[in-house]
From TrEMBL, chain A:
The main subunits of the menaquinol:cytochrome c complex are a Rieske-type iron-sulfur protein (QcrA), a cytochrome b (QcrB) and a cytochrome c (QcrC). Keywords: Cell membrane, Electron transport, Heme, Iron, Membrane, Metal-binding, Transmembrane, Transmembrane helix, Transport. Its cofactor is heme c; heme b. Its main location: membrane. The chain crosses the membrane at residues 39-67, 96-114, 126-146, 192-214. This is Menaquinol:cytochrome c reductase cytochrome b subunit. Component of the menaquinol:cytochrome c reductase complex. It is a multi-pass membrane protein.
TrEMBL record, chain B:
It comes from Natribacillus halophilus. This is Menaquinol-cytochrome c reductase cytochrome b/c subunit. Its main location: membrane. GO terms for cellular component: membrane. SUPFAM superfamilies: a domain/subunit of cytochrome bc1 complex (Ubiquinol-cytochrome c reductase), Cytochrome c.
Amino acid sequence: MLQRIYDWIDDRVDVTPLWRDVADHEVPEHVNPGHHFSAFVYCFGGLTFFTVVIQILSGMFLTMYYVPDIVNAHASVEYLQSDVAFGMIVRGMHHWGASVVIVMVFLHTLRVFFTGSYKKPREINWVVGVLLFFIILGLGFTGYLLPWDMKAYFATQVGLEIAETVPVVGDLLSNLLAGGEFIGAQTLTRFFAIHVFFLPGALLGLIAIHFIMIRRQGISGPL
Amino acid sequence: MHRGKGMRFVTDSRIKEREHRMENIPKDYSEYPGKTEAFFPNYLLKEWVVGAVFLIGFLCLTVAHPAPLEREADPMDSSYIPLPDWFFLFLYQLLKYQFAAGDYVVIGTVVLPGLAFGALMLAPWLDKGPERNLSKRPIATSMMILAVMSVVYLTWESADQHDWEADAEQAAMGEEDILEVEEDIEGYEIYQAQGCISCHGDNMEGNPGVRGPDLYELPYDAEGVAEISVDGIGEMPPDMFDGSEEELQILSEYVADGGGVNEELEYLDEDEVDADDASDLGEEDDEDDAEEEAQ
């Protein structure tokens, strides 16, 4: 029965090649920790992706309760943290996940660097990876403001002051991020939009490119 | 190239296999000698097991350490010592050094990070040689080790220099209530003009950032308050008051009176202290003080 449903779909949209592209490849010995334990360094990329998935899922649940305006933001986080069932765990996952993603990206970057895997023909994928790193840092920065507590407010103020020191475009950049001269209602909604729509969109697009290129080019060979 | 069932689409844009491949494109995995393993399902299943263990560890962390939440943002509290998220600490610390602060702040905010991250992004073109082994490309390796060591050092220094005790104090979710003091009388004007506000708050609620205590329910009478505002006490330096005797008199009476909120508290105290005692642990201290004073 399942086979017939699959065939019916496959006859019309030819999904077999897509499926084979995703699943049908072999894992070479030198990256398989089952054969050489030291190959665990090749896991950091996958763990980064795994944590990113955790971030997306926990973030989706957080937006069910979070209210992005300066009057209710803090109270909604407090409510989520103290009253909602499993709210503490979901927020905890998102909070600590942010740190775990950074650590994993850092380790993954070091692995790729020290195995020289960014060399021809994988230059573009390295650049995409560095862009992904910047996007993840941006997600960390914008997400930090959202609980609207003291730490969030003043850390963002420091961040915007740093942006202001950029020659020529500094003030423009800071105004663009804050939505005005001061950190206030505009800043919070803006950071929320950036954190929830703009950056995750860019993140998913670049991750797709990152993965397609890995499948095209394969994992770099043994040293 | 026919894949799957070999269907042909009206506009088949799928890339055909090229005759001349780029020289350096690696061989297919299957061409490596050794024990290759199918990704699906063999390897994926093992990955799932590792992923599950990772997830359990991660969940334990979230249960053991709930995500912190400080009191609601108060933009007027200029005494708050800011602290960025830990992964920005190295940048934050960099700006504390003289060569990257003040007039040279552009070096700290744009030049050095720009060079470091620019070099990171352009690594494939800065390190073009064919060698991949890290011992055979000493410049790239040493630059990266240097960069990692600097980031670790700066982060460490930043955490080391931060006053974590003050941080915990200023972060606390305001347990005590802020009471509305009377503001339309002379006492408050002097309170404001003498700068008491900066440490004791504009409603006498205190300022944890500079360890200024609240001034409700002080154990001093007007004379005692006057003495303290001239001589100082504890961390409060002497000679904070700078005005006429008459002003001092008005101010100290006003402060000893808790800005007009104390009487009200005592009144509440008689009726409700028993009922409140059990329900609200946070206010217990205040009420105890009030009781002592009533006796």
